[in-house]
Amino acid sequence: MDKIYGMIGLAKRAGKIVSGSNLCLDCIKKRRSFLIIISHDASDTTAKSLTDSCIYYGVRNVRFGTKGLLGKYTGGGERSVISVNDENFANVIYDKIRAAY
After folding, report:
1. Structural domain boundaries enclosing 45
2. pLDDT digits (tens, 9 = 90+) for 46-97
3. CATH assignment at residue 47
4. In 3D, which of 98, 93, 78 has the Cα closest to residue 35?
5. Measured on CA atoms in the order 15, 20, 26, 31, is the torsion positive or negative?
6. How many domains does the chain have?
7. pLDDT at 2
8. Which ranges of the chain would DSSP assign to H, the alpha helix?
9. Would you call 14 exposed, middle or buried from its count of C-beta atoms within 10 A (0-12, 13-18, 19+)?
10. Bridge-partner residues for 81, per DSSP?
11. Rounded-to-10 torsion of CA 75, 99, 51, 29
């Protein structure tokens, strides 16, 4: 798990992470997002809205972590959703999450 959070932190430092549901929805619609990560403790409304948008626009999405930990590794408060806006980071993070589960 630490490697996954480490990659998320690295992507954030590289400027390839956007957090917050409205900003993530914007990235999905503008086709900038390659991966959406939704925390396990995100509200059902937020999760459904983002998942539906991901399906419509063909963006991979995955449930992972908690709001607190996603916020910690992206340098802010609690975050229920983050968008990975780089294809290489998205592939690595997605593969690591899939391998962990």
Report:
1. 2-100
2. 999 999 999 999 999 999 999 999 999 888 789 999 999 999 999 999 999 9
3. 3.30.1330.30
4. 93
5. positive
6. 1
7. 84
8. 2-13, 21-29, 44-57, 67-73, 87-100
9. exposed
10. 38
11. 60
